[in-house]
Fold this sequence. Notes:
Radius of gyration: 18 Å
Mean pLDDT: 93
Helix content: 25-40%
Number of strands: 11
Order of helices and strands: HEEEHEHEEHHEEEHEHE
Distance between the termini: 41 Å
Structural class: alpha+beta
Number of helices: 7
Shape: globular
Amino acid sequence: MFMDRELACRLERTESAIGTSFTAVQQRVAPEVGAVWRDFDGTYAIYDGAESPMTQTFGLGMFAPTTPEQLTEIEAFFEQRGAPVMHEVSPLAGVATYAMLAERGYRPHELSTVLVLQLHDHEAPTSSLKVRVVTPADRPVFVETAIGGWASDATYGEVIRKLTEIASQNTSMLHFLVEQDGEPIASGSLGIHEGVALFAGASTIPRARGLGAQSLLLAARYAEARRRGCELAMMVCDPGSTSQRNAERRGFRVAYTRTKWRRAR
């Protein structure tokens, strides 16, 4: 497996396709948000509300050359809805794409590392913790567990809650809970697109960190992805984070690090 443009296109399309599945959920449960997505010659633009971290593009420069005309259309898509213009861009999109963004007043806003793993038979870790798939009845517990793991900063608490509540109703994804003596301590999700499994949203409540919950979540999603015929798994996390170290311990390799660009107003 080579970390090349072909692989990058496959990974970028997986994340963007799964991202669009949230739009249908948002349209159903909160139509007032006006959630919508569009395909701009292979670049997927998702609007999920002006303040949502889901509001951005995926795949810019990967499926067709980036042009000023394309960027103008995409910018209008977001600006007409009062949202900032964000592009999460793989370095394999090329320096010309980065240069064009800089020329149009964009600035680096965030970095994210994309990791990938070829799936094969794998032994699950031994643990006293239990992991299980979330049922519809578990949805409130899943939401509160995820929030407990993610929202350590009260500034982002409401954003995390909204995202998690929408995610919990996305039937295109499978959700997991890890329990210690029957009490939920960690959560994570799995999405699948054309043989690639996206491991997303993993978090552990502060008091239970260091007990192996994340390793168990990775193993459970790994096994489920294999059962569903996936060839590859991918994750996206902060560069150099604990999540990245946990993934690399399980055999994931860094494919590339993306830059999220934001257009200056």
